[in-house]
Each structure stands twice: as C-alpha cells, then as structure tokens.
Design goal:
The protein is of the alpha/beta class. It has helices at 13-24, 61-72, 86-97, 101-128, 147-156, 158-161, 172-178, 203-216, 260-264, 333-342, 387-402, and strands spanning 5-9, 28-32, 49-50, 78-80, 140-144, 168-171, 191-195, 199-200, 220-222, 227-233, 236-242, 245-247, 251-254, 274-284, 295-298, 303-308, 311-320, 353-361, 368-371, 377-381. It is globular and about 65 Å long. It binds flavin-adenine dinucleotide. The site of flavin-adenine dinucleotide has 39 residues, from α1, β14, β18 and α11.
C-alpha cells in the first residue's frame, strides 16, 4: 500500500505526538501550526504532571456546589462570570448532566484507563528516543489540610485503586519524609495521598524534543501557518486553507486544542470543547533554595506544583472567560500565597514568569478521538486538564484507528458523540 499523505492540524503536545505515531506507521506527515514553534499555546507552561493517580473528572456531585459558590465569590479556584455566551451555557448544562455519581464513576474509570495506557507509551517513548524534559519520576503528593477532606479523599480514591492505581495514605510526618521541603508547613498539613506511579516533566520541552525526532523521521512542520478553513466536498475533506497557501493530503487530523470547535463548525460539527482558562507562575530555583522534588497538589486550594530542573512552577484556577488569555499579577496572588506558605524558601519569588492557557475541556473530561462523519477527517482533541498525561495514548489510538486497527483500550464514550 502506498504511504498516505496526512495533515495534522495543531502542533501542541497532542498534534506532535500524533505526527510521531503516524510517521512511525509509515505515513508522510505534515503538521500545520500558526505559531513559530510547537507547544506555544496550552502545552506551553502547564503543571507538568503525568498523573493517572489524579485522573478524577471535574464533573462530580461536589462540582455543583463549587460552581454555585464561584458565582458569588471570584476568589475561588473556579471562576465563573455570568455573561452572554451560548457555547459556555450549553457546555455547562452538559457538564451538570455529568455530575451524577454514576457518570462521575464511569467517566473517571474511562479516563483512568486512558491515562495509564498513555503513561506507559510516554515512558517507552522517553526511553527509546532518549527524550529530555526535566522529568521527575518519583511519584506525586496530593496534600490535604484537614482530617475531614483527607477522609473524603480516602473514600473517593477507591475508584482509582479499583482501576489498578497504587495510592498510599500518609500522615503529616510521613509526608515530610517524602518531601522535606514542606517542613515549615507541617502544621498546615493533615496528611496526603501519595501516588508512587505519577511523575512530572515539562510538556513543552517534551514536545520540542519529539518534534526533532519527528523531523528525523521525515515529518514536515509548516509553522507560522494560520489555518483559515477546512474545505470539504460531500463527505470528504479536500484541502486546508492557510495564510501560507492550500495544503492537501489523503487524511487530516484535527488537533487544535481549544480552537478545534471553530474549525469543525463550518463542516457541521458542534464539538463540546470549551476553553477553561488556567494560570501558571514559574520561578527560578537552584541549590541555594529548598524546592520540592516531588510534584503535588494542595487539594484544599487546588494549587499544583512541579519542579523542572532549575525552575519551580505553580498552577491554579479554572476560569470560564471565553478565549481570553490575558492575565494580571493579581490573578496569581492566591496561588502565590499558597506557594510561599508551603515552600517559603522554594525559589526566587522575586522573579516570576506569568502565563495563562486554555484547557480544551469536554463536559465528560474525556477527549474526542478518531473518526468523524467525513471519511478522511479524524479528531484528537478535547484533552482538558490532562492533555499532557493523555497525549501519547490518544495519539497512538488515533493513528491505529486511521490504519484500520482496533485501539488496544476501550474508547467507548471518547468518540464523536
Ligand atoms: C494551568 C494548566 C495546567 C495544566 N496542567 C496539566 C497537568 O499537570 N497535566 C496534564 O496532563 N495536563 C495539564 N494541563 C492540560 C494540558 O496542558 C492540555 O490538555 C494540553 O496542552 C492540550 O494540548 P493540545 O495539543 O490539545 O492543545 P495546544 O497545546 O493548545 O495545541 C493546539 C495547537 O493548535 C494551534 N492552533 C490553534 N488554532 C490554530 C489555527 N487556526 N491555525 C493554526 N494553528 C492553530 C495552536 O497554535 C497550538 O499550537 C494543564 C493545562 C493548564 C491550562
């Protein structure tokens, strides 16, 4: 069979991983992105956690209370402003339908299986391709500030342990043995859940390193190319129009993160992907500071941290504000307070790098993969708050589907709905 020309739209971590697995299967691949380099948008400065041990879906019975409180108090980790945005309200309605106990358990179990599969592929790729991305693979800590929330977390974690994840409950003293950098915050900590299998690493460094490997395998990167439209004829895509010209191929993969719905809508798709803004702040650190070594999340404040070589990053907030990625220093104040409280000597807090990105969220928390109604158009989008964790797995699944193979895990609920 002659090798097929395949066009991947989007060079985030998802698009580049997709290009890799397609090239590995012998396809000629072109990746198109509007930025000068891959991973300049949501994959740029995320929390960096590869965390099957935290693959709970956001839609849960508790989420309804959080949503309600966020309407009255914008200092919450979740920020929702009442405004006219039919897409946002349609999305929120579907999100609420997924907040039942049954849906939460089903969606989390599906997500977990995808995260575990993906982490396995990421580890293999890292080893075989010798990829460097400031990886730390010694687990992750999920911290709780009081006994009540720790007890609730212990209940909730069964859904993950039943799915094969090892999670250990630690008291405060045990937490300090794993992470001495938390010593001065001892009184603030009731305990933690430790997931030995979770890890962290810089998604952007990974994407750039994988781009180099893709290039060595013959993948063509067409950068600074804004996709303006996708042209289709009956049930087949025939071209992609960009500011640099028209690109054609045999098959096309849509991996534009939060922007996928914009490009899919003229073709008749209403992808349930909504941008949920998150913020990160990165500081320089070195041996003269006492940065944490294990990535983690302060579960009571929903602030995550991870160390990447000589950098320490904190991330937080889920904000519904459309496609706006602006930020101001006050947006980072709550997470900075948590950072300084947990790790007072963790980094040079005088030199912050601020960033905001848009999580391409689906109401269910699982991505949209595989076939569309156009016979040569495929989706790999909607990875939400765990696209770094799920990138390799979803890329391989989509490449397998395109080659007519059954995906190795069950992807029910992750196809076009
Ligand atoms: C604050 C925060 C913390 C996070 N933490 C984690 C974490 O700890 N672990 C985890 O697993 N995930 C995490 N995530 C989620 C993860 O970052 C995303 O799921 C992932 O980056 C999505 O990748 P993507 O390739 O789909 O999207 P993107 O990285 O946004 O890539 C889409 C690409 O499409 C391009 N593009 C868009 N429109 C066009 C167009 N019209 N023409 C040409 N190019 C276009 C963009 O330039 C971009 O390069 C976090 C996200 C945020 C915001």
């Amino acid at each position: 069979m002659a090798s097929k020309d395949t066009v991947v739209l989007g060079a985030g971590v998802v698009g580049v991983a997709t290009a890799w697995y397609l090239a590995e299967q012998g396809r000629r691949v072109t990746v198109i992105d509007r930025r000068a380099l891959p991973a300049m948008e949501t994959s740029f400065a995320n929390a960096g956690m590869v965390a099957p041990g935290h693959s709970y879906t956001w839609a849960s019975p508790q989420a309804l209370g959080i949503l309600w409180r966020s309407l009255r108090d914008d200092s919450q980790a979740l920020r929702l402003k009442i405004r006219f945005d039919p897409d946002m309200w349609a999305w929120l309605w579907k999100f609420m339908l997924n907040c039942t106990i049954d849906r939460t358990q089903l969606n989390t179990a599906r997500k977990l299986s995808l995260c575990l599969y993906s982490q396995d592929l990421l580890q293999r790729l890292t080893t075989t391709q010798k990829l460097q991305y400031d990886r730390i693979s010694c687990g992750a800590l999920y911290l709780y500030r009081d006994e009540i929330s720790l007890a609730r977390a212990r209940e909730k974690m069964r859904i993950l342990t039943n799915g094969g994840v090892r999670l250990d409950i630690l008291n405060a003293d045990e937490v300090l043995k794993y992470e001495p950098a938390l010593t001065s915050a001892r009184k603030q900590i009731a305990g933690a859940i430790y997931c030995p299998g979770d890890e962290s690493g810089d998604a952007r460094m990974f994407t750039l390193a994988l781009m180099e490997r893709c290039r060595e395998s013959g993948v063509n990167f067409m950068m600074d190319a804004q996709v303006q439209s996708i042209e289709a004829n009956a049930n087949k895509v025939i071209a992609v129009h960009t500011n640099l010209g028209v690109v054609t191929g045999d098959d096309y993969v849509l991996a534009l993160g939060s922007y996928s719905p914009h490009m899919a809508r003229p073709l008749g798709y209403r992808l349930p992907v909504y941008p949920v803004k998150g913020y990160s702040i990165t500081f320089p650190t070195d041996q003269s500071y006492q940065p944490p070594t294990i990535a983690g999340v302060d579960e009571n404040n929903l602030v995550a941290w991870a160390r990447f070589g000589n950098r320490l990053r904190f991330t937080a907030t889920a904000e519904f504000s459309g496609y706006d990625t602006d930020h101001k220093p006050s947006d980072f104040a709550p997470m900075l307070r948590v950072a300084k409280l947990l790790f007072p000597d963790g980094a040079d807090y005088e030199h912050p790098e601020y960033w905001a990105g848009l999580r391409p969220m689906t109401p269910e928390g699982t991505p949209i993969l595989g076939k569309s109604r156009h016979k040569n158009l495929y989706f790999n989008t909607g990875h939400g708050h765990m696209g770094w964790t799920m990138a390799c797995g979803t890329a391989k699944i989509v490449a397998d589907i395109m080659n007519g193979c059954e995906p190795p895990i069950n992807i029910t609920g992750m196809t076009l709905r």
